[in-house]
Amino acid sequence: MEHSIVLRILSVVLLFLNQRHEGLARSENSELESNQEWKNAQEKDRIIQLPGQPGNVNFAQYSGYVTVNQQAGRALFYWLTEATTNPSSKPLVLWLNGGPGCSSVAYGAAEELGPLHISSDGKTLFLNPYSWNKCMYTKFPPDLCFSDCVCNYVYWSVFFAVANILFVESPAGVGFSYSNTSSDLHNSGDARTAEDAYVFLINWLQRFPQYKYRDFFIAGESYAGHYVPQLAQVVYRNNKGLQKPIINLRGFMVGNAVTDAYNDYIGTFEYWWSHALISDSTYKLLKDTCDFTSSQHPSDPCQIALNQADMEQGNIDAYSIFTPSCNISGSQRHKLQSRYPWRYKAYDPCTERYSELYFNQPEVQKALHANVTGIPYRWTTCSGTLEKYWKDSPRSMLPIYKELLEGGIRIWVFSGDTDAVVPVTATRYSIDALQLPTVVNWYPWYDNGEAVFGSLVDVKTSSSSSSQSALSPTSITFLQRTGSHNLRCGTSRWTIPKEDWERRTCLFCNKGVVETEGHFIMECLACDDIHIQYENDLKVDKLNELFE
Where is the signal peptide (predicted)? Predict the structure, then answer.
């Protein structure tokens, strides 16, 4: 896949095969069996079937509202897609999209990593083969099988189960989420968004108590580069002193994330210039007139320079500079796809339009238990009102990164290199500003043993960490995905021919290194939290010992 795969790389990152969950889940579920109230509440939210849904859906879905402020009448809309296999033993991942004011249902669920995507007719759905909630196929060395996955020893294949994915439209005013206090839409900001999201989690877990104590991760992209760490900070601080917190935060990950105003400015202008999107004179004007310490309310001279840069960039999709814009005709798009097929494979720039067609259908809203209050406006992918009146936006998330790293929270930062809105250069500058020691140097990794799948991986640890291992509980990992962009996310089939077992990465291991023959590094969020190194053949007996 050339495009729409910023997060496809993370399907392998999210190999949630932690067997320890299974025993914990069994004991917790037995305690819940006697409580009928939460079961009734869940059943009311169960999605029986969505209009246009294919017939081979093999996972449970729930959607509905959770009140986050009774007095103001604020409620957030959610859509839960459970894992296709053994959901009771799989972690929970909360996905948030940015904006501010953009819908996680429109982007995360319906375009990116969700299991059901919308066809171009705006009426029918199709299964996303790279959804985060399903087992996905990848080639691996023969005789290697993880946990409850199904192995085919002839083709060296293994299926990795992933996670339960919770999409939330946040804050109130985004998508189907609403407030009965109209002034709320003019007073949203980072602080209240984080507070409401935390209340949502607490109240949602009362309805879904089987997810209490489950390994929990927060993920998102773009302006969710604020939402995700801010919510993680709220959870982390509220968990302090608790022996067994019900929100068992293990880590967070952000992609093409708005992180630090100073570095975002510098990195973005540099990206525009280095990719020939703006002229030398405009680049100089931007650097001379714009205040790099704040991304809000640019000065008049800076705004003139920004307008000039926008004019010079022309009619491109700034989120994916090498792909077509949706406003070109279907015949033009077909010609471009025929001439440059590698640019358009699995990528449709008009998916936002399909979402607005689909989610505004009354029968769809009824099936989703959505729009129960009759919001006085059409459902849209993004809210211009929220973005226009956004109240508070701290200039930097780096202090939060430092706090959470010191507290043992793992961080995964990924970036596609064709996004000109929150580009990879901005992300790199922001991470470098943390001034953390590097414990794993950058290296290439591959798909199918041929094309570069992601060109750089950099693992750093907090300077105060007692361990300088890449497995340190205070590590931050950066990955750049070649040919990927912002707002086009999913998962990816990761094939590894036996003759080319190059280095590649997963996420978040916390056990000791398994020494085999040296060279290969696989850091995993799951795989029983193993960290494997090898150069020649895998020592299968050592792997088997880990899974016993």
Answer: 1-25
